[in-house]
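Structure ticket #2291
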Amino acid sequence: MQKLKILPSIITALTALTLTSCSTTTAEQYETTALTSYTWQVKYANDLTSQPQPRIEIFANTSMLNRNGLKPAGAVVGPDDRGLWWPTLPPRPSVDEVEQRKRPQEEAGKPELIRDVKYKLTYGVGNSQQTLPTNYDVYRQVVKAYPQKIPLELTLGVNDNSVEKAEPVSK
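Resolution: structure written out below.
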C-alpha cells in the first residue's frame, strides 16, 4: 500500500521535469540538412546465430548532404518518397575483403547495405547560430517554410539538445 501513496508524487515530479526541460524559440533564420548515407557492413562472431553482440566491421560508405530540400550537386538518386536525395552506392566488399577481416574461430555474415539519415537544423540565436539534431517531421516543415522564409516556432527537446517540432508562426 505504501507504494501506491508514492506514485502520485513521482508522476507529479516527472511531469514537472518534462515541462521544465523543454523550451520554445522563434527562428527567422534557419536551414535544415539531411545527411543520407549508404554503408556496407559485415557482422563477425564465433557463432552468428547465438552471439548477442557480434563484432561489426564497416567497409565502404558514401554520403550526400541534402540542404533545405534542394537537389544537391552531383545527385543522381532521388528524390525518394521522403524527398531525399541519395549518393551512389559504395562498392560492395568482395569475399576476399570480408575474409581478410575475419579473426581466428570467427564466422562472417553476409555484407549488409545500411541506409541512414541524420537530420540537423541550424537556426539563428541573437548573433550566433545553433545546430541541433532533429527528425524527419521538422526537416519537412523547414523545407516547406524555407522558400518564403516563414518564421518558425521551434520546440526544443530535453536540455535544449534537439529540435523536436517546428511550426510556422502565424502573423
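Closing remark: The beta strands are 24-27, 30-45, 55-67, 107-108, 112-125, 128-133, 152-156, 163-168.
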